[in-house]
Amino acid sequence: MATAMASARTVTVLARAGFRRFATYRQATVAGAFTNTVFGFVRCYVLLSLADAGGRVAGYDRAQLATFVFAGQGMIAVVNYWGAAELADRVRTGDVVADLLRPLDLMVGHLATDLGRAGFAMLTRFVVPIVAGLLAFDLYVPAHLVTYVLFAVSLLLAVLVCSVCRYLVNLSAFWLLDIRGVRQLWVVASGAGSGLSFPLPLLPGWLVTGLWLCTPFPALMQAPLDVLVERGGTGHAGVLVAGQLAWLLIVVALARLVQRRALRRLVIQGG
Amino acid sequence: MADGPGTRAAYRKLVAAQVRSQTQYRASFLMDLIGSTVLTLIDVVAVFVLFSVNGSLGGFGGREVLLMVGIASFAFPLADLAVGNVEWLPFYVRTGLFDAVLVRPLSSLGQLLAMDFAPRRIGRFVQGLVIYLIALVVAPVDWHAGTAVLAVLAPLAAAVFFGSLFVAGATVAFWWIESGEIAFAFTYGGKDFSTYPATVFGGFFRRLFAYGLGFAFVAYLPALALLGRPDPLGVPTWLHWCSPLVALIAAGLAALFWRTGIRHYRSTGS
Which of residues 32-91 of A touch B (CB under 8 A)? Predict the structure, then answer.
């Protein structure tokens, strides 16, 4: 019991440190939010130009599309697809040995810091593109109160799934040392398969089903955004969140397995 | 700066050292090469996913859009390969390495480009070239001497334009060290913008990006000139041929800005 409380306190402290650390990069925050907003304008105009006479594209109306684009641009930094490869660098330099001596699991430490970072991004990077979108376009305002709650849960799950996936990418450093290649593949797959490049319903149905069932990518962005614009109603939103939860369990189990293998390998190498 | 044989040998050695070091971890380099090549292919696929919704984009058919995609996706990697490394400038300024760059008897910009030369970007360049060649064959180009010259000059001019943006964007770091992502809005964002017909966009955003910043001259207007089509937005026909001129102006402005930046540079002292 005492240890559980102690580790809960450690996690909180780490999360707060993550928040404060990213809060110090003020210029970078402004620059990033600006870039997301510019991309929001480009993507939004392109998608809106596809609208048919009834103003719909792939089941979204104009306001839903604009919200999808601007909330999506705001989410990029929160979910943090392209996070730095800190752990991989520490593996390469050998500093990871110091991390392993600490009385805290490597993965828990990574997740706690990353949650703090996501919290800061939520207050800054998420807000700016949405405000810009509100000024320039008609955005969709969710009609049901429960949508806001579900969106919050869905967004948290997206952050966690993404964080664990990036942790897995970093773990490959135990074998490869230089993970630029794996990272690049992750960037490509996660960008195209998650709804970041375009809403997934624009793709053929069988491909979308395949992405949902076989990859964690739609859980990173398509799911929270569909919850937000109330595509398919509250029942559908519940299914999406359940799907995200399932993917979180899968990637966590995988990460535990890979981490155990990786640490054994580190010991064999002689540290 | 005199461009003697010694200078050229120095640059050659800097680039060769980079290529050697980056290909050390072979599995990782290969994945990186494949990954960055697929990454640009995804951009092209994304355009066609959007195009497939109604079979047109902004009033243009697939073969015409392909020509715009072709110019942009050939020019951008060319610029990225040649001067994209200038993105690392904030790192050099922050760590103080830029002092070392300045005391060496080579051009500072030239060194930055050679020191971070990224061979993996060659994959994207080859792929962009292939897309552009296919577009030239497939699109209903109105071939005559003028369009033949423009077909060669347009992507080169667009590459110079993007290259100027890379340099200008990085130069901001002399004043504003964490500005990296602002530059992305105009380099990668500008590439995204110029991949689509300007008719797709609207309002002040189109006026700003297409004409104010000149992105219409990257692919949209040259493509109209090659196709022999008038501009639905009313830009006079003679301006469709002016992209090389616009690129030269952009390069001149970027060079001027870079020089101002260098003069402004004060070492971090670390």
Answer: 32, 34-35, 37-39, 41-43, 45-47, 49-50, 52, 57-58
- Residue B81, pLDDT score: 87
Indicate if the pLDDT at residue B270 is higher than 60.
no
B176 at A interface, C-beta within 8 A: yes
Contact A57 B53 (CB under 8 A): yes
Q: Look up the domain containing A55 and give its range.
A: 2-268
How many structural domains comprise chain A? Answer: 1
**Phi and psi (nearest 5°) for A61?**
-90, 180
Instruction: Looking at the complex, report in whole angstroms how far the Cα of residue B20 sits from the nearest Cα belonging to chain A.
Output: 15
Q: Mapping DSSP to helix (H, G, I), strand (E, B) and coil, where does residue A57 land? A: strand
Above 80 in pLDDT, residue B115? no
pLDDT of amino acid B110? 80
Interface list for A 93-152 with B (CB within 8 A): 136
ipTM confidence? 0.86
Does A271 score more than 60 pLDDT?
A: no
pLDDT-derived band of residue A270, with 50, 70 and 90 as boundaries? Answer: low
Q: What is the pLDDT of residues B178-218, one digit of tens each?
A: 777 788 899 999 999 999 999 999 889 999 999 999 999 99
Reading phi first (left if > 0) and then psi (alpha if -120 to 50, else beta), residue A270 is in: left
Per the CB < 8 Å rule, is A187 touching B177? no
Considering the entire predicted model, what is its pTM?
A: 0.89
Distance from CA of A33 to the nearest CA of B (A): 9
- Which residue in the set A46, A179, A188 is minimally distant from B196, CB to CB? A46
- B25 contacts A28? CB cut-off 8 A: no
Max Cα distance, chain A (Å)? 67
Give, for B242, the enclosing helix (H) or strand (E): none
Contacts with A37 from chain B: Cβ below 8 Å = 185
Residue B34 touches chain A, beta carbons under 8 Å: yes
b/e A77-115 (16+ beta carbons within 10 angstroms → b): bbbbbebebebbebbbeeebeeeeeeeeebbebbbbbbb
Cβ contacts of A154 within 8 Å, gap of 6 or more? A223, A224, A227, A228, A237, A240, A241, A244
Query: Is B169 in contact with B187 (CB distance < 8 Å)?
Result: yes
Report angle CA A187, A188, A190 to the nearest 5 degrees.
Answer: 65
Phi, psi of A125 (to 5 degrees): -65, -30
What is the least distance, in Å, from the CA of A83 to any CA of chain B? 14
Nearest CB to B178; choose among A25, A41, A136: A25
Residue B173 has what pLDDT? Answer: 85
